[in-house]
């Protein structure tokens, strides 16, 4: 079945509030998938999620994903995208775009004067954006914040 509606609701786009800092402990060693070592409990420093996830606070938004159109890239409905509006979209990057009245998340490709927006879920068809359409790149996805399953 082909699905056409995979828009992001405007209520699911939030601007980053510069100045709010959240410091969390950062352990100096990697987490083992096997047995834990009691010597690996040393906290090296405190880090801030802003420093890890945000390059340009003035141009960064959190966007909640509203569909499964990018599930092949492990982006699921309900995940939060960190979107930087100051970055130039490069072919192959995942972007949030404004297209004909809706925000959507897709992988962008350039084919001459035409832009192709691709989903990573095969049940969604590619979208071909022709010159003159109501289209604008909102921003480039820099991080995905997801809940573990």
From TrEMBL:
It comes from the Bacteria. Transmembrane segments: none annotated. Residues 25-141 form the Peptidase S24/S26A/S26B/S26C domain. InterPro entries: LexA-like, LexA/Signal_pep-like_sf, LexA_repressor, Peptidase_S24_S26A/B/C. SUPFAM superfamilies: LexA/Signal peptidase (SSF51306). This is Peptidase S24. It comes from Larkinella punicea. The lineage of its organism: Bacteria, Pseudomonadati, Bacteroidota, Cytophagia, Cytophagales.
